[in-house]
Design goal:
4-stranded antiparallel sheet; 9-stranded mixed sheet; binds zinc ion; alpha/beta; 12 helices; Amidase_Cbmase; hydrolase
Amino acid sequence: MGYEEMWRDLLPIGRVSGGGHRRFSWTAADRECRAWFAEEAGRRGLTVEEDRNGNLFAWWDVPGERRDAVLTGSHLDSVPDGGAFDGPLGVVSSLAAIDLLRERGVTPVRPLGVAVFAEEEGARFGVACLGSRLLTGAIDPVRARGLRDGDGVTWADAMAADGHDPEALGPDPDLLAGVGCFVELHVEQGRALDVPVGVASAIWPHGRWRFDFTGQGNHAGTTLLRDRHDPMLPFAQTVLAARDAAARHEAVATMGKVHVTPNGVNAIPSIVRAWLDTRAPDDTAVRATVAEIRAAAEKAAGEHGVAVALAEESYTQVVDFHAGLRDRLATTLGGAPVLPTGAGHDAGILSAHVPTAMLFVRNPTGVSHAPEEHAETGDCLTGVEALATALEDLLTS
Ligand SMILES: [Zn+2]
């Protein structure tokens, strides 16, 4: 089973009409993806283990204790109607890289693990990188157990229904202590690469904020314009202000989710609740962007007699990947370009505990988290070669 055969076998799992994928944690599609991974790992003589948090590991061990291991891999879950590459490319490439290492006759002096992290997208339970956060202790297991999906099912119940023990959830310092470094290969999610493979420098700081615009619900026909307190108007001005502020600070800002109360065609809304996602190369730019958007929202709300409140729902500081490992990879790969990303990854979570680096494979359109996400097969095969070369260097010295 080479790269292309593995890709062909994995592709139909969880595929929906329209071409995207729905591979949510602890569903039938997730179970099929995990079974596919266990079979491919078994075919290669790797030892498959599941940790206490639902993360899978396939080990190519060396004699003696599992110490100073090189870890690679990624995730198999998806966003709703997500592309085929985000996550699976890293897992398939890791297995294909092992085949290449064996063809090259490489004899590792330390173990190699391929990880499949659980709930990386947070698509079902709302917290991204949940598996790696649990493993590293970045989230309280009590909170994780109680996270609910859209139907009110908890992470604990969903996990138990799929045959896993939710009582065992929590940090695993012993597992982490055996890992010397982590290298995650991932499809690039913008149009930042003009060669097949690059090395990540950093993950931009990013956060989520919630705006509540509270006005006065009223009749759309009988309420004079001058008598209105319509929260939709300052909301609309805030969306435009977000775009302008982001442009001024070389950030990105997105308002992609909005709840309108009562959401009627012939009613002036009483409340508009909207979420802002902002990311930038550094914390100062993110903070300055959000401050400007907030000021614009407050000014517009005041002009329309509407109250506005802003709450920060999450914030993640900048992640700078391990400089030594990053430079070693870039050099080993013959001077591969080094670039930052605006997307979060398990590698970002692991980087607080072990030297971590990422390889990106070119995305010709830049589309991601959508069915049209794509990478050319030739670039993916170059990615496999690059990963194998990077792993060979790390495994043999
Ligand atoms: Zn991903």
